[in-house]
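Weekly puzzle thread! Below is a chain. First person to post its structure in token form gets bragging rights.
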Amino acid sequence: MALEDAKTEIDTAFTRKGLRGYAFENAFGGATSFLRRTYTKDLTGVDLAVTGVPFDQAVTHRTGTRFGPRAIREASSLQPYDPPHGWGTDPLEDMAVIDYGDLAFDYAKTAEFPERLTDHIRTILAAGAGSVTLGGDHFITWPILKAYAEKFGPMSVIHFDAHSDLWQDDDLTRIDHGTMMYKAVKTGVVDPKRSVQIGIRTFCDDYLGMNVIDARECHEIGVARIVEKVKAIVGDNPVYLTFDIDALDPAFAPGTGTPVWGGLASWQAAAILRDLAGVNLVGGDVVEVSPPYDTTGATAIAGAHVAYELICLYHWNKFRK
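Winning reply:
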């Protein structure tokens, strides 16, 4: 939409003709759909659906990530005007990307939440679209992975995090953001030998066969070697990428429930994500953005950038391979 069309095309989150194209609108006004994508529940012809999951009842300490999807969407309004830097691609012109809104659930019926989320993602996948999910705490990744594994088989996961989320927990009814990857591996929805965790810097006594590039190794070997190792591990297997914002050092992302020093810098994360182009990415999420702990909004801005990079990776896999 050109600026001269502003009088007739008011708020493209509702009035866009078709599902492609950038939004040349004031960043400080209008609906806060992600990247000013069209808000719709109609998945017809959609390539990728961005959806929010405002759930934080699985955290071990500080709540607040229920406000993450809203904050990430608001931060994304700073980005909708041009193709993403460094990619040489035009994902919002080439793909039909929508904002599918948030998962609706009864906060007082927590036990029903996981299956409700799995079904939400099933609906998107059944329509032939992929998903990029805005969290919410990191528990949400396990129910999402269940839906993906139903379609693609055991998934390769590229997992950015300060924590492994592999602590032993054999009670599948427990809803805990620190044990979700343990359950994903144990239930067979994740293939650990073809998965990798990046940025880990907390204790874990059993990685269950997952490959790990911890934070210190990331700093020492550099971006090119990290990406080389990751691509060798996942191969051409379907990949789901989950990015816990606490993979970033608290200097770059203070607004999260369990911050840990010594993490990735924003530039490292950006470079790694960019250079992962070519992996068989079929979906992803960014989680653990907790706006109440960051008055600057920097953490939500980082989350919005990660989500846009996931869109770019998905576009590269679908349109550039």
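Puzzle host: Confirmed. Bonus trivia for everyone else. The chain has a mean pLDDT of 93.
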